[in-house]
Design brief:
Number of strands: 15
Largest sheet: 9 strands, mixed
Structural class: alpha/beta
Radius of gyration: 19 Å
CATH class of the largest domain: Alpha Beta
CATH topology of the largest domain: Dihydrodipicolinate Reductase, domain 2
Strand order of the largest sheet: 14-13-12-11-7-10-9-8-15
Number of helices: 10
Length: 341
């Protein structure tokens, strides 16, 4: 069992605390800090017996805290991870790990020097349906993989105020890329390997804030298959992930983390209808089981930090994923395909 502090008590920080609030034998949240020490934050801290600190620095010098869980603005992730490592704290970082490949390398190097564990909040990796898809691909039952694609949507940007950090294009470039799309990109990396080249177009259609709401990205994987990702932040919430092979395709449907939805919905219902369509014969369809992906990710991190099995997202994948994000943003700005460095 490790004792952790949550850094950031917005709606998603609260969701992570709730995910392990009952019965976890691996991780226990004992402290918290947030930029706004509001009455709501104090009430939540009291409800979950969290010691509420006034600063991140105060958490780092508390020897009773083993790990920090960062649910903070994207640009702060790298310096916060480095500071935590230098104080001997294990770090679970919400996505995106970093906005640049160079930043990701700095964070990983700091963790390696300190001998601490890094975890990353790509929680969909932990769902049983992704494991089933991974096994199906590795067994050859889908044949030669041709293409992977995803669409992720939610209405959250319609309700953002101009001063919110999620409305800042420096924090959240390319619309739904960092709040949603990076989940799908991590799935592509997990199932298809590294990405070689990207091409992105991103623009604003409906939201009032100065931020993109419609983004589409083309990928070419180093292994040869193609990829596609669309994100929209101003429509109904949804999640589709499909892998096409020479022997058939698999389609996973579900939902995204819609602000205002219940904690249970955000944690247990990201996957819904599933389909396997072979070359011949009828499609096989089924419903995914309810599974708390947030709890699974946090507990996997905690076990790794306690000397157990390694966290399944490697630091090499963390770095490459950040480099892909960087290339996508660069492509949106240049209007050209960009190589992933």
């Amino acid at each position: 069992m490790i004792n952790a502090a949550i850094v950031g008590l917005g709606w998603w920080g609260k969701t992570l605390v709730e995910a392990v609030a009952e019965g976890s034998e691996d991780i226990n949240f004992v402290a918290a800090t947030t930029r706004s020490l509001s009455d709501d934050a104090r009430e939540f801290a009291d409800e979950h017996s969290l010691k509420l600190y006034t600063s991140y620095e105060d958490i780092l010098v508390d020897d009773d805290i083993d790990a920090v869980v960062l649910v903070t603005p994207n640009s702060t992730h790298v310096p916060q991870m480095i500071a935590a490592a230098e104080h001997g704290k294990h770090v679970f970082c919400e996505k995106p790990f970093a906005l640049t490949g160079a930043g990701a390398k700095q964070a990983v190097a700091a963790a390696e020097r300190a001998g601490v564990t890094l975890g990353l909040g790509y929680n969909r990796r932990f769902h049983p349906e992704i494991k089933k898809l991974r096994d199906l691909m590795s067994s050859g039952e889908l044949g030669t993989i041709l293409h992977v694609e995803a669409t992720m949507t939610f209405p959250n940007a319609l309700f953002l105020k101009p001063g919110a950090w999620r409305a800042d294009t420096n924090e959240t470039p390319c619309g739904g890329l960092t709040p949603m799309g990076v989940h799908a990109i991590d799935g592509m990396l997990d199932l298809c390997g590294e990405i070689d080249q990207v091409y992105c177009q991103s623009f604003r259609r409906a939201v009032e804030i100065e931020a993109d709401d419609t983004t589409s990205i083309l990928f070419r994987m180093k292994e040869g298959m193609s990829g596609y990702l669309a994100t929209m932040t101003a429509t109904g919430g949804g999640f589709n992930f499909q892998v096409y092979g020479s022997k058939g395709f698999v389609k996973l449907e579900g939902m995204t983390h819609v602000a205002g939805a219940s904690s249970e919905e955000r944690r247990f219902k990201l996957f819904g209808s599933c389909t396997f369509k072979p070359l011949k014969g009828p499609a096989e369809t089924w419903q995914a089981e309810g599974f708390d992906v947030s709890r699974a990710a946090l507990e996997s991190f905690a076990r790794a930090a306690s000397g157990g099995p390694a966290f399944p997202i490697t630091t090499e994948e963390m770095i490459h994923g950040a480099a892909v994000t960087e290339a996508i943003v660069k492509s949106a700005q240049s209007g050209l395909p960009e190589k992933v460095s």
